[in-house]
Amino acid sequence: MKTDAYARLQEVAGPVSRETFDKLIAFQTVLRKWAQRINLVAPSTLDDVWERHILDSAQVVKLGGDAKNWLDIGSGGGFPGLIIGSMIAERAGASIDLVESNRKKAGFLQAVVGELRLPARVHAKRIEDVHGSIRAPEILSARALAPLPLLLELSAPWLQGGTKALFHKGRDYRQEIEDSSHQWGFDLVEHPSLTDAQGVILEIRNLRRL
At what angle do helices 103-116 and 18-34 cross, to 10 degrees? Predict the structure, then answer.
């Protein structure tokens, strides 16, 4: 089973060390334990955490190339933020900031960061309240947080400063892009999801208000 899981991880995310794989397996165990107490993922997906959440999150790391400085907003149960943190841990000088306003979920994030020794900082604040305190990262990620128009509004202070966004989106993404185009201009690349036939990762650069 573990051999298959490791092979699937590399299929989705590219070359991954055994140490990183072990870290993700450990995270899966911690998530299941905490999920008995607080709502971290939809209960119906707990039996398929590896594919539905961990691998779905891991694919953005490959799209981020060699980036070392990341920001994940609305980190919730750690997707994709904690997965990114686990996968960039072996990169010298790499780090990720995780923003989550829900105190219980922020507590979970902090516990995992400490237990797995991830190069991550947890900000238990609203996204709007950290605009001035987190410097522009190379990559900003978000998954299952908000419709694209609101997502762009929340991330604009960073995206207008040269940061690239990698946003997980589901099957209604084309309508969200259309809704966003009335207020925002941006360069867009659509990357088909490797774990969800109807999903995409939207790569957004050069955000500008119209």
Answer: 150
C-alpha to C-alpha distance for 84 and 75, rounded to whole angstroms: 11
Structural domains of the chain, with CATH: 2-209 (3.40.50.150)
DSSP per residue, 123-135: E-S-GGGGTTTS-
Token pair recorded at residue 155 = 């991330």
Q: Could you report the per-residue pLDDT of 13-54, keeping only the tens digit for each?
A: 999 999 999 999 999 999 999 988 888 877 766 677 898 999
Report pTM.
Answer: 0.94
Please state, as a whole number, how many other Cβ atoms lie within 10 Å of the Cβ of residue 160: 16
CA distances from 48 to 28, 34, 52, 135, 162 (A): 10, 16, 6, 35, 36
* String of DSSP letters for 55-103: IHHHHHHHHTTT--EEEEES-TTTTTHHHHHHHSTTSTT-EEEEE---H
